[in-house]
Amino acid sequence: MFEGIDPAVSAWVMTTATALIAALAATAGYALLIKLGYRLIQRRAIARDFLEQCDTAGGVVIFLLTLQAVWHAADDGVPWIAATRHMNSLALILALTWAALKATAAIGDVIVRLNPAIDGRHHAARKLETQARFLTRGLTVLIAIIGISAALMTFPSIRQLGTSLLASAGIGGIILGFAARPVLTNLLAGLQIALSQPFRIEDVLKFKDEWCWVEEVTTTYVVLRTWDLRRLVVPLQWFIENPFENWTRRPTSLMGPVFMWLDYRMPVAPLRAAFERMLEADAAWDRTIGTTQVVEAGEHAMQIRFLMSAGDSVELWHLRCRMREALLDFVQREYPDYLPNVRARLSEAPVPTAATPAAEVGDRPPD
């Protein structure tokens, strides 16, 4: 069959055919194992999601690994075998890097799903999610750097360049350190934040007079979601160097006031009783704080503070708004005359002029 073909070409064709048949057979066996695995874990959603994220990358690795075994077992005299081995090695390194990235991301997702933020475990769940997301992204960067470096080192010229760089690593390291200082600073800040946990995913922060939720934490920056759904991207180093408020650092419950200015004739007791009834009827109140106090006495009216508490910042905001509306409705309906008034006293005394000093106008006896 191959009598009229060059022996070198015939050897290359046979080696290639053998490699393809072996790779397809190994991939078919891998596919059967994956199918069997899906049947065994069909009722376990988390394990199924993990397998779905990794099965394609694993199949590519098995295919290329089988090809690589056949290429290395082939005779060195086969044409183009050296270039084929090198290209297959390069593809295998990239496939392994891809598989490692997929597995790392899948492990992070599994950790988060195994620890949902259910009632009573919000803090632990958010803490674990923040650490898992940060470590996953850190490993992703590390794996990508290692994979690309390994792929480049398969080229002799790049390997020789790397040896030369290592020989001059002293000055080069200093130059590289200064050039990459902002990136390295944020990476170290991210590591510090992941370990010390000054905030977690979905924590409520006050950032430069902005009320924000922590939406995403990466290796170099934090994405904050404002109340009007804007996104603020802040470098991690900012949180290391500047103070900020974390409203949900330990307990998520918060206190908040509602202030009202009312006339001095307004009785406080019925207002306090009405406020307590309103709190009892509202499901957002956590029954921790509910007080009514006169906190200021101004020139024309008194200021009353209604202090309340709720389970988290969102519920507290809506609770304050509802209480403010209900209290205004109560005062308008029950005590409409006791809203703030401006009082003035009319006097019939003549107005002093420049020719008549005020003391003379007020002290002059009647004729």
UniProtKB/TrEMBL annotation:
Keywords: Membrane, Transmembrane, Transmembrane helix. The lineage of its organism: Bacteria, Pseudomonadati, Pseudomonadota, Gammaproteobacteria, Salinisphaerales. The chain crosses the membrane at residues 12-33, 54-71, 91-114, 134-155, 161-180. The keyword Transmembrane applies. The keyword Transmembrane applies. This is Small mechanosensitive ion channel protein MscS. It is found in: Membrane. Its main location: membrane. It comes from Salinisphaera orenii MK-B5.
